[in-house]
Write a structure and sequence with these properties.
The chain has 3 domains: about 10-110 and about 170-245, P-loop containing nucleotide triphosphate hydrolases (Rossmann fold); about 110-170, no CATH class; about 250-340, no CATH class. It has helices at about 55-60, 85-90, 110-120, 125-140, 155-170, 185-205, 215-220, 240-245, 250-255, 265-275, 300-305, 325-340, and strands at about 10-20, 30-40, 45, 70-75, 75-80, 95, 175-180, 205-210, 225-230, 230-240, 310-315, 315-320. By secondary structure, the protein is of the alpha/beta class. The longest helix has 18 residues, at about 185-205. The strands form 2 sheets. Strands 6-7-8-3-9-10-12-11 form an 8-stranded mixed sheet, with helices on both faces. A 4-stranded antiparallel sheet has the order 2-1-4-5, covered by helices on one side. It is globular and about 70 Å long. The chain contains 12 helices and 12 strands. One of its GO terms (biological process) is transmembrane transport.
Length: about 350
């Protein structure tokens, strides 16, 4: 069944997830009223710092964390509180690649055994057919048949993550939840794995919900980006629009936090970030007002008492900020003044 934005493959509506804080009073709200969807063949990047709720959303989709309220639908079927049998059948179409390639593979089983297990659950294949399908899948991720009899300890982190990707894709899923799949890898290996994700999507029409804390990584792979802070969506829209012209102060802060190769520019960014984010961040959504109010350099009284709605903005984006228009108009004026103040070269 093909999908469209009106009938998405994955549809999350008003999702709320709460945890016991271990202290008297209200529970910790890790996810607060989140709406998002993923269409067939689309990558949606879910980005935010630690504690923003992005992994909790992924776990709610996978059935590993029970939502407090809201719904999760897959291909039109409500799976919010699906039972064990339904989840087992669903796992053929919905797979996951976890962050840590060192702990996501069973160290006591060979790669061949691990990948064959997935096929035994979902497909009735002969031993020979299973072996051949495993070999084909390994080759798709850049590994050869010699990996079949090897244990995870024999591989590097990047190779283990390739195995994890092959294991997820051997069931021929329609949607893969990618939970920080490259954050434990060095930069050169990150690029290889990201290119692999893109190639596999092109070849197989996969959909990804790609969870990460690095906006540049998310931008590389995503068609749309959703920016989370303390369980709430701050901004969302087409990847290039959100990355090139971020409208929410938090998205701008995420970009400013990204390292750059020029030491002077890096020092300048660090000083600006420290100046604008002196208040400590706490996990859990704010019951009233904007959750970013305690850290925002543009805060006013209304921000602390009135939660901003997620409203339309230029570039087909949505922004949850009372002052996004005046803030960005001021930024443009400042940029024009800086350009105008530069001496002309004869």
């Amino acid at each position: 069944m093909s999908t469209s934005p009106e009938h998405p493959l994955l549809n999350i509506r008003n999702l709320n997830v709460e945890f016991d804080s271990g202290r008297p009073g209200a529970p910790l709200r890790a996810v607060d009223g989140v709406d998002l969807h993923v269409s067939e063949g689309e990558t949606v990047g879910l980005v935010g710092e630690s504690g923003s709720g992005k992994t909790t959303i992924g776990r709610a989709v996978l059935g590993l964390t029970e939502p407090t309220a809201g719904s999760v639908s897959f291909d039109g079927d409500d799976i919010t509180r699906a039972g064990w049998k339904k989840r087992r059948a669903l796992s053929k179409h919905l797979q996951v690649v976890f962050q840590d390639p060192y702990s996501s593979l069973n160290p006591a089983r060979t790669i061949g055994q691990t990948m064959s297990e997935t096929l035994r659950v979902h497909n009735k294949c002969s031993r020979y057919e299973t072996r051949e399908r495993v070999i084909v899948q390994l080759e798709k991720v850049g590994l050869d048949r010699s990996a079949l009899g090897c244990y995870p300890a024999h591989f590097s982190g990047g190779q283990r993550q390739r195995v994890a990707i092959a294991r997820a894709l051997i069931a021929e899923p329609r949607l893969v939840i990618c939970d920080e799949p490259v954050s434990a890898l060095d930069l050169s290996v990150q690029a290889q794995v990201l290119n692999l994700f893109r190639t596999l999507q092109k070849d197989h029409g996969l959909s990804y919900l790609f969870i990460a804390h690095d906006l540049a990584v998310v931008r590389f792979l995503s068609h749309r980006i959703v920016v989370l802070y303390r369980g709430q969506i701050m901004e969302q829209g087409p990847a290039e629009a959100v990355y090139q012209e971020p409208l929410h102060p938090y998205t701008q802060a995420l970009l400013a936090a990204a390292p750059v190769p020029e030491p002077k520019e890096q020092k300048k960014r660090r000083e600006e970030r420290i100046k604008h984010t002196t208040a400590p961040s706490s996990t859990g959504a704010s019951p009233t007002g904007c959750p970013f109010a305690t850290r925002c350099p543009h805060v006013e009284e209304r921000c602390r008492t009135e939660r901003p709605p997620l409203g339309p903005a230029p570039g087909n984006t949505l922004v949850a900020c009372h002052r996004w228009k005046e803030i960005n108009d001021a930024n443009r004026r400042q940029a024009r003044e800086l350009i105008g103040s530069k001496p002309r070269v004869a």
